[in-house]
Amino acid sequence: MRADRYDCDVLIVGLGPVGAALAALLARAGVTSIAVERDTEVYPLPRAAHFDHEVMRIFQSLGIAEAVAAHARPAPGYEFRTAKGELLLSFALPDQTPSGWSAGYMFHQPGLETALRDLIAASPLAEARLGWRFESLVQDAEGVTATVTGPDGPSRLRARYLVGCDGASSRVREAVGGGLFDFQFDEPWLVIDAVPLPGARMPETNLQICDPKRPTTCVLMGPGRHRWEFMLLPGETAEQVLEDDFIQSLVEPWDCGPVKLERKAVYRFHGLVAHRWRAGRVLLAGDAAHQTPPFAGQGMCSGVRDAVNLAWKLDAVLAGADEGLLDTYQQERDPHVRTLIAAAIGMGRVVCTQDPAAAAERDRAMLAQQAAGGTPLPPAAPAPFAEGCILPGSPAAGTLLPQPVRDGTRFDDLMGDGAWLVARTAPAAETPGLKVAALDRPEFAGFRPDLEAWLDKHGAEAALVRPDRYVFGTGAPGDLVRAWGRALRPAAVPA
């Protein structure tokens, strides 16, 4: 195959939520992609259960927030309780956040994936090849050639870049020797998804039952669905706990009334991160790059954040930016992911305690904290990017820009795609490649108080906002525009 012939700009291996989001984001930016997926249909049953406000904002940018919301509901609070029902800690999730959406959503994954795939099907720039399996890859200075097997046998596809979104057992990661860092958290759990029938009485909040005899989770899913997760005890096998009678013995004490069991599976909850997310023109995203225990509900969220971070950087590099920009992908996302994995493991260790004496001491300490008026907090948010495509030393660099909402209009929708300059007044100089929100203009009047208050907080005249809505930097408009140009400096042209 000729090195200068490409089937697409980006070849995506795997079309779960992360691969589909990446394909849709690339298409919106004008980048062509082909996604190969070994399954021929969207997996019809629930898997992930939760996504947060930032991920809903990403769906908003794709124009599918309303379609996704049809398969979701705002997440209620979380409660950690003892085996006797005593409250160990709780935290509520606010209805509104700086992103302009509820803090979290419980959802039905097949509906979300269908909304993403509908976008791909409607775009001439994205193609989904279902029933195709990735086999191997070879890369050179100009691109990647992948061997794939489809309905008619093996063939080759050539792209400028390849992104492995092919899950925990990623063949792409194996092909490039990504390796894995192990957080030494490995717990087997039985997952039961149920549909409440008329007359059922389901909990109205998300519960973690810290019972050393059988640590248990019970959470809402998408509308009309619920999930139980039961930790396997020493000596129990997957075959044993998947028996219907065994499952019935676990669910019956909840006294929820009539429910239809929709899905049963045994999972091992891991904390893992790939050592290397980029090898030349091959990159990893989602579970191929990291795996998070479910206790904080951040597994799929982290993968979708990968997609939006990587999409704009691939677009910029394909348009001529320095290829070193792709190195900032792992620089930014790896620390963020590790923070969330550590938080999830911390929550998991509270729940998973099986030693009766240790559980009793945990309960005593946490109940004492409650009695003393302590307010346990949800997991800490990851710190702003310490390095990457940001303006070093600039206030607010590496944080998510708030999204004001006024009279049903969201600021992102008014501004549209691409990078922005948000300034108190219009800059005197040109701003090539940037959309400008001059807050003294009438069209921004409704958003001005919130955004000026944010600029005041950071002592800045303006903020330059990346396409993923993270702040590149704050300061004087002209300085920001010049710094952004240097960050995306064109790749050197060979003599």
C-alpha-based Rg, rounded:
24 Å
Question: What composes the largest sheet?
Answer: 8 strands, mixed
Helix content: 25-40%
3D shape: globular
Strand coverage percent: 25-35%
Give the name of the CATH superfamily of the domain at 8-71 and 107-181 and 271-345. Answer: FAD/NAD(P)-binding domain
Distance between the termini: 26 Å
- In total, how many beta strands? 25
Q: With helices defined by DSSP (H or I, 4 residues minimum), what is the helix count?
A: 13
The top level CATH class name of the domain at 8-71 and 107-181 and 271-345 = Alpha Beta
CATH fold description of the domain at 8-71 and 107-181 and 271-345:
FAD/NAD(P)-binding domain
- Do you know the CATH architecture of the domain at 8-71 and 107-181 and 271-345? 3-Layer(bba) Sandwich
Low-confidence spans: none
- What's the average pLDDT? 94
Q: What can you see in these coordinates?
A:
The chain is of the alpha+beta class. Among the domains are: 8-71 and 107-181 and 271-345, 3-Layer(bba) Sandwich (FAD/NAD(P)-binding domain), CATH 3.50.50.60; 405-487, no CATH class. Helices cover 30% and strands 28% of the residues. The chain has helices at 17-29, 53-62, 65-69, 109-122, 171-176, 238-241, 244-251, 299-318, 327-351, 356-371, 411-415, 448-457, 477-487, and strands spanning 8-13, 33-37, 50-52, 72-74, 78-82, 87-91, 104-107, 126-130, 133-139, 144-150, 153-164, 180-196, 206-210, 216-220, 226-231, 259-274, 278-279, 282-284, 290-291, 405-406, 409-410, 419-423, 434-438, 462-465, 471-475. The strands form five sheets. Strands 1, 2, 8, 9, 10, 11, 17 and 18 form an eight-stranded mixed beta sheet that branches. An eight-stranded mixed beta sheet has the order 6-5-13-14-15-12-16-19, with helices on both faces. A four-stranded mixed beta sheet has the order 23-22-24-25, with helices on one face. Helix 1 (17-29) runs parallel beside helix 4, helix 1 (17-29) runs parallel beside helix 8 and helix 8 runs antiparallel to helix 9 (327-351). The longest helix is centred in the last third of the chain and has 25 residues, at 327-351. The protein is globular. The mean pLDDT is 94.
